[in-house]
Design brief:
By secondary structure, the chain is an alpha/beta fold. The chain has a domain of 107 residues: Ribosomal Protein L13p, Chain: A, CATH 3.90.1180. Helix content is 27%, strand content 24%. A hairpin with a 2-residue loop joins strand 1 and strand 2.
């Protein structure tokens, strides 16, 4: 803190400090077995951004990486298994394709969680950078043991 004199009054001023990209990389592993899709996605998005950390800076990558295992065992509530759809477009006329949640779970269960987390990240360069730090695996194994990940309870 420093003192400034403004119009005869002593004002206390504090400097704002920002955490740069010099933060250490921290790995977390999440088990998605039996977890609800949306609730899990919000926790993963918050961890990727570093919002749980006291030195959170909105415009910076806080150095968190998340590995998710058992993505094939994720659950949804209500009628979303049959009603929820995923749309993709090839770029050609008539190239729109639609899959239900059930079909997507059989083909690529990792993309369901990636799609949910991506929608909760910022829609800018930072969001595109952060989604690359999310690693999702359908089964119980992951190749990130060497990074000594901590288990993230959701």
């Amino acid at each position: 803190m420093r003192e400034e004199v403004v119009e005869g009054k002593i004002m206390l001023a504090m400097k704002t400090s920002f955490v740069g990209s010099d933060t250490d990389i921290k790995w977390c592993v999440v088990d998605a077995n039996g977890k609800v899709l949306g609730r899990l996605a919000t926790q993963i998005a918050m961890t990727l951004r570093g919002k749980h950390h006291p030195t959170f800076t909105p415009h910076a990558d806080m150095g968190y990486r998340v590995a998710v295992i058992n993505a094939e065992k994720i659950v949804v509530t209500g009628n979303k298994v049959t009603d929820k759809t995923y749309f993709r477009y090839s770029g050609y006329p008539g190239g729109g394709k639609v899959r239900t949640f059930e079909e997507q779970m059989q083909i690529k269960p990792e993309e369901i969680l990636r799609h949910a987390v991506k929608g909760m990240l910022p829609k800018n360069r930072l969001g595109r950078k952060l989604i690359k730090k999310l690693k999702i695996y359908a089964g119980p194994n992951h190749p990130h043991q060497a990074q000594h990940p901590e288990v993230l309870e959701v």
